[in-house]
Amino acid sequence: MKQQSRNKKKVIVVIKVIIALTLISFLIRGLFFEKKVSFAIAQESNKFIPDLTVKIDNEIVFNDTIVRGPIPCCFTQKRIDFGIHKIIIDSKSQNLRKEFKIFGFKNSYIFIAVWEHENGELWIEKEVYYFLTPMYE
Q1: What is the pLDDT of residue 137?
Q2: Residue 107 contacts by C-beta under 8 Å, 6 or more apart in sequence?
Q3: Judging by DSSP bridges, how do beta strands 122-129 and 48-56 pair with one another?
Q4: Which positions, given as ranges, span the membrane (predicted)?
Q5: Which residues pair with 100 in a beta bridge?
Q6: Hey, which of 4-8, 48-52, 110-114 has the most confident mean pLDDT?
Q7: Theoretical Cys-Cys bridge with 100: which of 3, 50, 87, 120, CB 3.0 to 4.6 Å?
Q8: Number of C-alpha atoms within 13 angstroms, CB side, residue 48?
């Protein structure tokens, strides 16, 4: 009887250690992924990008033409769950393909914006927000 209760306690301790190590490894991985990234996608001479596509985990969340105008910003946001997510930003006309990996906690949001920089270049920015509600409704 005592032997069985000792074995059960050992199994419970092993399970707790495995769970703790798994959570620690996810948190450490999250420290090495970039939360915020900005980069240029078009020079000032380009008036539009006809084929900008953003995918999160192979799901297209943005697929549109970007045209310079009075409000040179467009954005999209998507709720992501706990784990590692892959983001692909692609435009064949601009010869652009960027891939990122992000770590998301439960109910966090990824926000992706395209905007015109002061120097006239079009820039794209991605950022992960660890909020329980979206930034924009």
Answers
A1: 47
A2: 79, 81, 131, 132
A3: unpaired
A4: 12-32
A5: 87
A6: 4-8
A7: 87
A8: 7
Q: Which two tokens stand for residue 94?
A: 């601009």
Amino acid (1-letter code) at residue 20:
A
- Distance between CA atoms of residues 45 and 60, nearest Å: 27
Place of tokens 């900008």: 52
d(CA 128, CA 26): 16
d(CA 101, CA 98): 10
Task: Answer whether 9's CB lies under 8 Å from 94's CB.
Answer: no
Look at the chain and count its residues.
Answer: 137
Residue 116 structure tokens: 């015109």
Distance CA 125, CA 48 (A): 17
Is a pLDDT exceeding 80 seen at residue 55? Answer: yes
Tokens of 6: 């000792």
Strands across the sheet containing 74-80: 36-42, 122-129, 108-116, 74-80
Whether the model clears a pTM of 0.70, i.e. scores above it, the answer is no
Q: Identify the CA nearest to 68 among candidates 97, 42, 95.
A: 42
